[in-house]
Fold this protein.
Amino acid sequence: MSDLEHFRADTRAWLEENCPAAMREPVRGFDDLYMGGRNPEVDHPDQQLWCERMAQRGWTVPQWPREYGGGGLNKEEAKILQQEMARLGARRPLESFGISMLGPALLKFGSEAQKQEHLPPICRGEIRWCQGYSEPNAGSDLASLQTRAEDRGDHYIINGQKVWTSYADKADWIFCLVRTDNTGSKHEGISFVLFDMASEGVTTRPIKLISGSSPFCETFFDNVRADKRNLVGEEGKGWAIAKYLLTHEREMISAFGAAPAKSLGAVAVENLGSDASGRLRNGILRHTIAQYQLDALAFGATMSRVGDEAKAGQGLGAASSIFKYYGTELNKRRNELNLAIGGEPALGWDGDVYGGGATSRDWLRSKGNSIEGGTSEVQLNIIAKRVLGLPD
Amino acid sequence: MALVLTEEQIMLKESAAGLLAQKAGVAQLRALRDAGDARGFTPEVWQDIATMGWPGIAIPEAYGGLGYGYTGLGLVLEQVGRHLSPVPLQSTVLLGGTLINALGSEAQKQSLLPAVAAGELHVSLALQEGPQHAPEDTALKAEIAGAGYRLQGEKCLVLDALAAQQFVVIARTSGVPGDSAGLTAFLVAADAACLTVEQRSLVDARGVGALELNGVDVAASAVLGEVDAAWNGLSRSLDIANIGLAAELLGVATEAFERTVEYLKERKQFGKVIGSFQGLQHRAAELFAELELARSIVLKALQAIDADDPQLPLLASAAKAKLCEVAQRATNEGIQMHGGIGMTDEYDIGFFIKRARVAQHTFGDYNYHLDRFAQLSGF
């Protein structure tokens, strides 16, 4: 057996022995994900057990370096682990902004001490992070943010307000963009700092969305102290880190554009019936579904192509600039079709007969995809200016 | 298979771009059109192309080709689209060679394919009869006459008809129009008695014609493959042809788009270049995104031919439908964003919209292929 075959055999045996039965069930919506933290939301005790077991092997973050609590796996091994988990239907043990956003930024821009302090608790699911980016007057124009950080020698004093802070009310720490200098251009003078949400002067207020859920908060800082050892990168140079992190966020959001397992066309035929030639009975709806499925297929092929080109050393092509825009627009189209195909039950809001309103709530939530992390209009501006070279 | 071009494929693409830009670009198309050239291409240019080996690119080595596959041919066709090259690659290579390889007996392949690969034999498909692509509706009759067959009927949209030495005529030997069974492919020489080949003039000014078969007698050996059983080979060849046309349309659309973006950077109104206006920027950016999707689906479909993927019919219709949509949008926006100058014959952008519509229509347009895509997807 080759090393990889050994790795596969060992992994399979370990997963079979250690993955609890409940963690082999599909995730039922966003609220069913395990996000860890000091006061974790636990729907099933096995979530914590599964996270602990995986974290011991570094497999909550398989490809991060071992010295920071990751698995130290190479790409091939990580792929095998993913395949073996998929074989069992095993859930990912831990989801968090620490893993998907802060971690990559710290690995690239953080000091050794910062990596040692912050990465292992992320891997173990002990600290849950939130992202302090948008402000009431800095949405699409993020760089005009005004939250101030005053220099007090070994620490900063922070005052201001953030908005659209995901799960700020549940997070333990925040990675936050603050203004340390007001004299240069708006992109200068922004710093990237970390601080504890339990600090004195931090308050959060959840924002109820049209979908009925409250994944976002308003977050207020009133003379909050942040130690300077938690300044990431240089003071005033935080915009580069912010942008790097935004690309991670956009990748994550554009993944929503992936086509669902069961084709919409097949669901529509079940609901509305077909004619003798097998065509969906309503020709107008059929056309709209076909357009969506064609675009979803071509978008999936584009994600693969860009990945394969990068692997072949041809660089990250200009095509990657369309992911956020196109993926979120596709997701909105899919959700609109879910309503059209589903009919009355898809409009349900509460109660078991409507599945708790999952279809309509997802539909409403999808409207935010083309706003958060850079609106579709901002994405089109970026393509027009940076890719096509059109002038201001 | 990785959705990426190999270095060898990138080199092929670049050499095709070089030769076609120099010898078979829009200027040559314009000159042929203005001269009213019936053949629709320049024999010397075709000779240069044959020297490069492109006619044999997808033909197996056993029959004198390069055995390089359809992904390579697709890359050449994309460049043909970019330059609007007036060359008979679609008729003779994409269809002629493919049909003979898909349907022919071993002896027919041995005798015909090396000549196609060498660029010496021009073969064209005679399929369409009505205004729309509907291969099952073939009505042209072939009846047994003596030891052979007698063919009676009409065909249109025969690509490069005036240059072809042989036609593959799809005829009905049994059943009724609407049946996919009962179709037979016949090889008919261009100089056969009772065959009239007439030049037709379409909007793209390319070589195309119509056939009238007024009791054309052919020998039994003229049957390409088996009697009544042309459908599978024809259908596969049409899938390949539509993917090839999608590759050509990718070139047409990309070139039209790039010319338009350049124009947006030059043209000034209200004291500014018009490319600084957000209304135009967003339309250009959306089109850019659609072109990236188009590029991906074309590559995926080309690779499916070479990999013998069972999804080929679905991917062929997906690629053709998507490229019809994107090429139509790119060429329409090309005219609109050029403004008045885009409406003039002197300016080249008009050639792109014209070629796009004919290539879109050929062997099934957006409506045909999106319907087929949906049906093959189970709805």
